[in-house]
Structures are given as structure tokens and as C-alpha cells.
Design a protein that fits this description.
Layout lengths: L1 H30 L8 E3 L4 E3 L5 E5 L6 H9 L4 E2 L9 E4 L3 E10 L6 E6 L6 E8 L5 E5 L15 E6 L5 E9 L3 E3 L2 E4 L1 H36 L2 H21 L1 H6 L4 H26 L3 H4 L5 H18 L2 H28 L5 H22 L7 H4 L1 H49 L4 H28 L11 H18 L3 E9 L1 H8 L1 H17 L6 E4 L4 E7 L4 H16 L2 E3 L2 E3 L2 E9 L6 H21 L1
Parallel strand pairs: 1-6
Antiparallel strand pairs: 2-13, 3-4, 3-6, 5-12, 6-11, 7-10, 7-13, 8-9, 8-11, 14-16, 14-19, 15-16, 17-18
Helix pairs in contact: 1-9, 1-10, 3-4, 3-12, 4-6, 4-12, 6-8, 6-9, 8-9, 9-10, 10-12, 12-13, 15-16
Length: about 625
């Protein structure tokens, strides 16, 4: 118990230090952009960050008109942003109506055309009021409740075109409301500078979604190959988290639902809630017995139900309450997964090391984004996209955890195979010894042998599913034979060439086993397999499909007479005595032959004809 607590303390210390470092970095980043005054001068610079220069009015009552806001400004109700403030124009999860005011003057060389960018795509409603000093205000409206196709500018953020005159003062009011996080990062761009900045942001987003797409398809192929639902659940987790991130980045409206504002509006919180449902299922299945041994087997199912409820609340009740609940639940989810993952790491569970690193990454990003969403951190490239950074690292590490899990399971399977083979060897030695002991010892060893054979049979079934060759003779097995038959049929149809199928069965092989023992019988099978293979070409296939049954596949054959000659050679070669432990053992065989496509046009009929001919020859031999 003390060791588990020590591991957990180290994890907490690592997370605390990482969070502290991140917060110090954020403080450094944010302090470099503080402004000392509200009035700024706009000249010929390509880009101006306006967020730190606004004065703010928060209003919780009925919606205010512009005239009421102008009166409140005259009364001094607007408050400037304090130097060093972490909140800036990020107001967290709030239902308040927020008004921002900014006045600026232009220089004599100011370009005429500008774009005002509000760089938070999921805001519900934004109104921009601009006026020259002493003039009337012009109003523009935007928000994610407007379909993307109806936007005046095809951009993932909210853009407002401004025409500025030289040596003029302008007053700017911005009114913002949102049921989600109310963050209003405002920038003033020259058009070319905005276009250049967009190239960098879309390059980053392309890399992020390319990574997620690669992980999704990789794990989908793993699911189709292994039929383990854990990989399908992981695909759902990645897809839903990608949907939520796309909603926050403004990409769902641009690329998925340009004509449906409601789906665009619901995608950030709805996508994250669905990702939480799949994430809890993934953690519960991945950690296996760990939650139950900790008496926490109920935690992930309960959190999954809460995430599902968040999704339904977001869709049908209140987006605001859904956003609040999903932020809190995500933090609890990450902490629970990290704790149980730490215990799994201590116990050496496959994939646990990458699992713990993945949830440390996600936990740090959730802490940063939660502080941002609650208004505790400023909006910048790091805080606004913290979940994107963290989720990319988390999903990559979870994919490594799944790969590590496969590798560990394969190693365990190999160990089980070696143990089964070792047990088999010991049982064979015990069986030889038992022949010289009393009858009750024989019965006792027989029980042990049956148990060993059951274990060996289970291992053999697993090996046969994964292998293409017979374990005893090294020949192709039934699966590989089927594959080569399909290829031979396609080549025959394409090249108009024939191929021959020979079905071989050893005569009186049971008597060999009864007289000399099964080990001698196995050596006879190996010798027969070697003789058959030695008299065929490299391109031909020799397969063992049963105890003493073999199948020969010969492509690009010549005349029927040549095949009959080969058949006689094989019969003569196999009939030669096989020396085993100074004893000469002779074995005969019967060969049935069918030609494709002369005798049959499908594999089942071809097999039946060859098999029937083989049994006819076998009965004739036995009768003789």
C-alpha cells in the first residue's frame, strides 16, 4: 500500500510542477501584451491587438440599447481593464451581456480597408457599432446562430469590414453574448496580413486533424483485424473530440454544416460530451480489473451517464448548463482516469505507462481550458487551444498505449506457447517412464496427460488461427491452401491455363500408429511430406489438411499423361521403406486427381471429384 501511495504522490508532484510551469509561461506570454492606455493609434502596421485596450460594461438584466449604453458610458459605468489582469476580454461561462468600448485615432498614412476580427467562433451573438467622432453609429451583426453560408466573409472567425479615413478618431462598441464561454479576443487586420496569418492557423489545424484522422483510420483497421471493440470505442472517442474541437475552432460551420446554424452552435459542447461518453467506456475497458479491485468499477459508468446527460441537456434544455456540467465532469473524468491509470502502472498492466502520460497531458489541458472558460486565464493562442494541444498528445499516447497493449499480449501469448510446449515435452517423457511403472501410475499419468493435452489443444488452436503452415510437417495448412487455390483459379482464368488438384490419403496409417506408436506415425507423416515436396516444383503447393491427408496443387501443368506419370512416381517414392529406430516401415497412399477447368469450374466440385477418385482407388487397394 505504501508503494502505491508513493507512486501516486510522484504523479501528483509531476502534475503540480507541470501546471505551475504552464501557468508561469502563460503569465509571461500574457504580460508581454498588456497595454497601459485605452486610446491607441492605428497607422500602417499590418496587425493591431485591441483586446487589452477596451473598457468593459457587464450587464445581467434585459438587453440594453446602444443609446442606453452611451448614457451609461457618460455616467462612467464602463471599467477599464486593470494592468496585469489575467481575464482581459475573457469572461468565462456567464449569461451576462458584455459591452466593450474602444476609441482609436488613425494616422495620415493609414490604409483605407481593414478587417475587425473577433477570434472566438462559438460566440452566439456579436454586434459591432462604429462611428467617426461626432457622427452616427453603423451596426454590424454576427454570431454562430447565423449560418456560415450567410456570412459576408467566408472565415471561421467573425469578421467585420472597416473603412478608415486618415487623421480621424473612431469610437467602437462591441456587444457580445454567449451560452458557452464568453471570450472576445479582438484584432484589427490589414487584409493581406489576415490572409497570411490564416495560412499559419490552417496549417496547424490541418496537422491536428490529419493526426486525428490517421489515428482514427489506424485504430479502425485494428478493429476490423482484431475484432476488439476497444479500438472501435477509441475511434468514437477521437471522432467526437475532433467534432468538439472543430466547433470551437469554427470549422464545423465552414466545412460540415454551412447552412445549419443550430448544429454549428451545438457542436462544441455536444461533441465534447459525446467524446466523454466514449472516453469513459474506453478507460473502463482498457484498465480491465483495476477499477474493480479499487472498488471504483462504478466510476466510469456513472461519469459516462453524466456525459450523456450533458449531451441531452445541451440539445434540449440549456446550452449554458450543459457547458458548465461538461467542464466539471471532464475534470473529474481526467482525475479518475489518472488515478486508476497510476495504480495500473504500478501493477505492470500492459500499456499503462503510455496511458498515464496520456491522461496527464489531457488533465493539464483540461485545467488550462477550464481556467480559461471560467475567466481565470486570458484568451491567446495557447489557452484557447489548450484542449487541442492536450488532446493531440493524449490521443497519440493512447494509441501508443493500445500498441503497447498488443505487444504485451503477444509476448504473453508467446510465453504461454513456450510453456505449453515445455509441458508437452515433460508429459511425453513422463509417458515413456509410465510404461515401466504400475497400472495405477499409468492411470495417474494419463490424467496429467489429458490436462496437458487440453492446454496444448488451446494453444494449438490459437497458433493455427495465426499461422499458415502445419506445425508438424511445415507444409501449407488448409487456410494457405485456400488462398493459393483462389490465386490459381484467377491466374488460370486470366492466362487460360490449367491446374491440377491431387488429394492424397495414406493407406492403413492407423495400423502404423497402433503398432509403432504415434511418435513413429508423426515421423512417417514428416517423411511422406518431405518426399512429396521433393518431387514437386517450387511453384507447386503441398498442403497437409488432415491427419494423414495431403493436397497437391500443381499450376501450369502439361498433358494429362504427364500428370499420371507424376502420380506413379509419387506413389513409388512414398512406398519406399521409412527407417525409424532401426525399423523399416512401409506406407502406401491413394491419390485422386482433378483438372481445372476441364473436370470442374469451382473449387468445391473439383475437391469432390479428386476426393471421390482417391476413395475409389483406396477401396480398390483395400479390396485387393
Amino acid at each position: 500500500m505504501q508503494s502505491i501511495e508513493a507512486v501516486w504522490r510522484r504523479l501528483i508532484r509531476y502534475a503540480r510542477q507541470s501546471i505551475l510551469f504552464g501557468l508561469i509561461l502563460l503569465a509571461c506570454l500574457s504580460s508581454s501584451s498588456l497595454a497601459d492606455a485605452q486610446n491607441i493609434q492605428v497607422g500602417n502596421e499590418p496587425h493591431y491587438v485591441l483586446s487589452r485596450h477596451f473598457s468593459v460594461l457587464r450587464h445581467a438584466g434585459p438587453a440594453l440599447s446602444l443609446q442606453q449604453v452611451l448614457d451609461l458610458q457618460q455616467q462612467g459605468e464602463f471599467r477599464g481593464i486593470e494592468p496585469g489582469s489575467t481575464a482581459s476580454t475573457n469572461f468565462g461561462l456567464t449569461r451576462d451581456q458584455v459591452w466593450l468600448f474602444q476609441s482609436f485615432t488613425t494616422t495620415g498614412n493609414v490604409p483605407q480597408r481593414w478587417f475587425l476580427e473577433v477570434a472566438h467562433a462559438s460566440l452566439d451573438s456579436i454586434d459591432v457599432y462604429v462611428a467617426e467622432q461626432g457622427g452616427s453609429y453603423t451596426q454590424r451583426h454576427a454570431g454562430d446562430r447565423i449560418p456560415f453560408s450567410a456570412k459576408p466573409f467566408a472565415h471561421r472567425h467573425h469578421l467585420f469590414e472597416l473603412i478608415l479615413e486618415p487623421n480621424t478618431r473612431y469610437d467602437l462598441f462591441i456587444r457580445a453574448e454567449s451560452a458557452g464561454t464568453l471570450s472576445v479576443p479582438v484584432n484589427l487586420w490589414q487584409p493581406d496580413a489576415l490572409w497570411a496569418a490564416d495560412q499559419y492557423s490552417y496549417t496547424f489545424l490541418s496537422a491536428y486533424y490529419g493526426l486525428l484522422g490517421g489515428l482514427m483510420f489506424y485504430n479502425l483497421f485494428l478493429f476490423l483485424s482484431l475484432r476488439d471493440r476497444l479500438y472501435l470505442i477509441y475511434v468514437g472517442f477521437v471522432a467526437c473530440l475532433a467534432l468538439g474541437q472543430a466547433g470551437l475552432a469554427g470549422l464545423t460551420g465552414q466545412f460540415l454544416w454551412p447552412n445549419d446554424a443550430l448544429l454549428t452552435h451545438l457542436s462544441p459542447t455536444g461533441g465534447v460530451a459525446l467524446a466523454g461518453v466514449f472516453g469513459t467506456m474506453f478507460v473502463h475497458r482498457f484498465l480491465g480489473p483495476t477499477p474493480r479491485t479499487l472498488y471504483m468499477h462504478w466510476v466510469m459508468p456513472v461519469l459516462g451517464v453524466v456525459f450523456a446527460a450533458c449531451f441531452l441537456i445541451t440539445l434540449f434544455v440549456s446550452y449554458f448548463f450543459g457547458a458548465v456540467i461538461v467542464n466539471i465532469t471532464s475534470l473529474l473524468f481526467a482525475l479518475s482516469a489518472l488515478f486508476m491509470g497510476g495504480v495500473s502502472l504500478y501493477r505492470g498492466q500492459p500499456g499503462a505507462r503510455f496511458f498515464v502520460l496520456a491522461w496527464v497531458s489531457l488533465l493539464l489541458s483540461i485545467v488550462v481550458i477550464a481556467l480559461h472558460n471560467l475567466g481565470g486565464l486570458p484568451s491567446n493562442g495557447f489557452t484557447s487551444n489548450a484542449l487541442m494541444f492536450g488532446s493531440a498528445a493524449e490521443m497519440l499516447l493512447l494509441s501508443l498505449a493500445l500498441a503497447d497493449r498488443i505487444n504485451s499480449m503477444q509476448q504473453a501469448q508467446d510465453r504461454a506457447q513456450q510453456e505449453a510446449l515445455a509441458v508437452n515435452r515433460k508429459m511425453v517423457e513422463a509417458l515413456r517412464e509410465s510404461e515401466r511403472q504400475l497400472e495405477f501410475r499409468v492411470a495417474e499419468r494419463t490424467v496429467e496427460l489429458e490436462q496437458a493435452n487440453e492446454e496444448l489443444t488451446r494453444s494449438k488452436v490459437l497458433l493455427e488461427e495465426q499461422a499458415n503452415h502445419d506445425a508438424l510437417t511445415g507444409l501449407a495448412n488448409r487456410k494457405l491452401l485456400g488462398d493459393r487455390l483462389n490465386l490459381a483459379q484467377m491466374r488460370s482464368q486470366r492466362n487460360k491455363q490449367k491446374f491440377v488438384l491431387m488429394v492424397v490419403d495414406l493407406n492403413e496409417f492407423k495400423q502404423i500408429n497402433d503398432r509403432y506408436g504415434h511418435m513413429a506415425g508423426d515421423r512417417v507423416l514428416v517423411a511422406v511430406a518431405q518426399r512429396l515436396k521433393a518431387h514437386l516444383r517450387e511453384v507447386d503447393t503441398v498442403a497437409r489438411v488432415g491427419g494423414d491427408e495431403f493436397v497437391l496443387l500443381l499450376e501450369s501443368v502439361g498433358s494429362f499423361e504427364a500428370m499420371e506419370l507424376l502420380q506413379r512416381k509419387l506413389l513409388a517414392e512414398v512406398a519406399k521403406p521409412i527407417v525409424i529406430d532401426d525399423q523399416a516401415i512401409s506406407v502406401g497412399m491413394s491419390i485422386g486427381m482433378a483438372v481445372y477447368p476441364d473436370d470442374a469450374a469451382d473449387m468445391d466440385s473439383l475437391f469432390q471429384l479428386a476426393d471421390k477418385q482417391m476413395y475409389s482407388l483406396k477401396h480398390a487397394t483395400n479390396a485387393g
